[in-house]
Amino acid sequence: MNDLALSNLAHEDRTFDPPGDLAARANVSAEVYAEADADPEAFWGRQAERLDWGTPFTRVLDWSKAPFAKWFVGGRLNAAYNCVDRHVENGLGDKVALHFVGEPGDTRAITYSQLKDEVSQAANALIDLGVKAGDRVAIYLPMIPEAVIAMLACARLGAPHTVVFGGFSADALSSRILDCDAKVVITADGGYRRGKASALKPAVDEALQACPGVVSVLVVRRTGEDVAWTGGRDVWWHDVVTSASTTHVPQLFDSEHPLYVMYTSGTTGAPKGILHTTGGYLVQAAYTFWATFDHKPDSDVYWCTADVGWVTGHSYIVYGPLAEGATQVLYEGTPDTPHKGRWWEIIAEYGVTLFYTAPTAIRTCMKWGEQIPAEHDLSSLRVLGSVGESINPEAYVWYRENIGGGKTPIVDTWWQTETGAHMITPLPGVTSGKPGSAMTAFPGISVEVVDDAGEPVGNGEGGYLVITEPWPSMLRTIWGDDERYKETYWSRWPDYYFAGDGAKKDDDGAIWLLGRVDDVMNVSGHRLSTTEIESALVSHPSVAEAAVVGAADDTTGQAVVAFVILRESAKDVEDVSADLRAHVAKEIGPIAKPRQVMVVPELPKTRSGKIMRRLLRDVAENREVGDATTLADSSVMALITAGIVDAKNDED
Ligand code: ATP
Ligand code: MG
Q1: Looking at domain 124-248, which CATH architecture does it have?
Q2: Which residue, 567, 561, 547, 638, is CA-closest to 597?
Q3: Which CATH superfamily, name and number, covers 524-651?
């Protein structure tokens, strides 16, 4: 992997220093890296003091049964108590925890003391439904406060939750319920999406035909639409939760008690059920939230646009921010309903200071044009975050200029469902950011870029990204499958966690993510990274989004096939394909020049916004399309295939 195309990384040479006032008041200073390096275990032991432990831990890490870790051994705590009750006890009961904004325009502010009452009520209702510590509960809800409340109620009872994204089908839901053997499902009649009520309960009814182990379904009324009802199984939230007692005494659980199972996005294959436990996870989620976003509890208003149905929603809507006593916005709907300025309107209205979203959303906003955010006052923003994929330099600079007013640091956070929390990221008051780079390992985290033999590569070289030491919020296993856990993450090099991503160190040692190792293309013996070629394509004025894959080729082994979405302004450009091929050749080199460029109306993405390149590879190689169950919009593949048939006909 050493000859991954690297030249394109020089594309954006600027670095952006932290603003002076932010750096002067930053939560974390540069010294923290050295302090953490000197003794990472002691460092994490100190960070664990952010939490309230009912019983203190006696040892930070037990790695004697590697790769099965125990963090904060002997410690006992309650995650929900740490996220809610303790803030009320500390006098912050009247502080707003959630500013909920429904898509139709309804709003609700929920204080920490109201949250405590509702979480307690939900916990009491779940007890009445027979939920005990250790039982699994599936949550299938829209982005409404009850999603947060339900997760915290489960955590309070020590009943691991598995949240399934509300856009998933009945099949995706039933396979997750079966895999973790959930006893109760919490859902809603529906939610609002793109200006309409979108039903959820029918998918639950269908899914449960295959899930005899589910004894109760707790249903939130959100849209008021009619729902089918199974007597003896289904109960309304407003009947059993609202009438339950607001008093519930949280029990303590072992630091290693399971907190939740979250299925990965399924970008590279069938989703894996990732198990996170309580103490280590909560410590790293809380500390990284505070450090990466420079969170100031007295003045910041935070907003993460992720859905609670994926790990970002777990760590950076629920557990991290609430453990830190943050005030945040929770928005139900899509960015373009009822108009394309909805997000920016919300930021202006609530004075959002810290904003966290995904590159795919930023590129969509770029496509819509900068005049839309320009109509809103975004001057409250002081830190912007990005997660989910590499943020290409073009999008980074656009985000900083048009959303951040040319002044906000951007934290490009690399992490995974498996890592539970940030692992590689700039720190806003410390790091001079380079557009497109995730920069450096978080304090107390050890990563390396290695070659096939597991040897670290030098600066200026590429290889495989590994994590070389255990970390507090690491996955503990794949649910019910310890062997698959060892095989997937710990077998390539016995002592390293293999993330599955390619990366490069630049001349200064900063880390650039290059995309999935599985997606690396091999053209005439040269290994090319998806991220770089996609970045080159997006740097062309005609292109809004791009995905590249390697397709079998008689002469070169593999050839680069590019799928691009054009910007509104480029719809009439003639022979865009020839232009783009020449552009990539110029930016990276002739070897990276795509064999074909397909103009498509959409790209296949997971609901978390990641491009599913394996499906495009199937299309490029004329195969039947593989497992598409985690695709956000199932009609996309048909659109793309139809578009390609047209393109092929044109070429003839
Ligand atoms: P699956 O493991 O099922 O294929 P997935 O890997 O997409 O799905 P997630 O855990 O949601 O599921 O995503 C983690 C991956 O997302 C990382 O391994 C990396 O490829 C990508 N990623 C996340 N953040 C960044 C980032 N800041 N820069 C580059 N890549 C990122
Ligand atoms: Mg993955």
Answers
A1: 3-Layer(aba) Sandwich (3.40)
A2: 561
A3: ANL, C-terminal domain (3.30.300.30)
